[in-house]
Structure formats: structure tokens, C-alpha cells
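User: Hi! I'm working on a homework problem where we have to compare a predicted structure to a textbook description. Could you give me the structure for the chain below?
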Amino acid sequence: MEPTEKIIRQAEQLHDGELAKEIESLVKVYGSDRSALIPVLQQIQKKYKFISSFAQQEVAKLLDIHPVEVYGVITFYSFLSSEPKGKYIIRLCRTIICDLAGKEEVEKAITKEIKIKVGETTKDNKFTLEYTNCLGMCDLGPAMMINNKIYTKLTPEKAVSIIRDLDKSD
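Assistant: Happy to help. Predicted C-alpha cells:
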């Protein structure tokens, strides 16, 4: 093993040890039965922007459920992910109502601004662009949510302005 690979592996092991302790503390807060699964996963997702394979294994072990069940929950819910996401997760509503209100033009403007397609993350890990099902803002569409903030009555210009403001704030 090369020296660089050894250092990387040691860093990953240190991180995994810290993550295991964090998951143990989450289980103490939410409990160790099956009903704790989603709240524990939500907290991991909130902090790390994804749920690693190691985290999935630890959660399964501590909740005494099969790792496939943990993975199944992660892949079922669109707000959980087993893949790393950007700092800002842009979720564009893809309901028929938002489509009729001009979502396609908003999407084109966003993809042009951040230079990625839906389902991708920018190289600097700043933005991830995804579709989501109904945000509950049908009367104010098109709508998008960035992290936990909802934006409504979007125009291409308004969407780009929001993204540029986020980009400048860092």
C-alpha cells in the first residue's frame, strides 16, 4: 500500500469511528426499534448530505434490522440518498401543474446557469439538481425547494437570481 493510500485509509477509519459514535447517540435519542429508522437516517442525511454504506451498516446493526431494509428505505424516499449531494440541493417540482405553469423554462435556465443536468452535482459540490414530486405549492407554481426553503411563482430569471445569490453567499 502506497503512503498516500495509507493516509487516506486511516482518515476514513477515523471518520467511520466518529460516525459510529454519532449514530449511537442518535439511537439513544430516537430509540433502538424500527420506528427510529427514518429519524436517524434524516439526521445523518442532514449533516452529511448523504448516507454512506458504512452509516447504513451501523444503523442496521444498532436497530437490529437487515442492511437491505435500510437501503430500501433510503432509495424509496427522495429526500434520502446514498450518494453525496451538493451543499445546495435544488429540488424542482415535476407535477403537471408546475409543468403547465412553466417549469420547463425554469429548468432550462437553471441547468444553463449551473451547467449540470437533472440528477447531477456540480464539480465543486455546491449544487445538486433533482426532480421531486409535489411540494404542495400547486397554486404558486412553478416551485422549487433548495435545501429546506421553498421558492414559488418562479420565472427563469427569478430562479437564476436565487441560485446566483446562494453562489455569492459562500
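For your comparison, note the following. The mean pLDDT is 89. The two ends are 37 Å apart (CA to CA). Good luck with the assignment!
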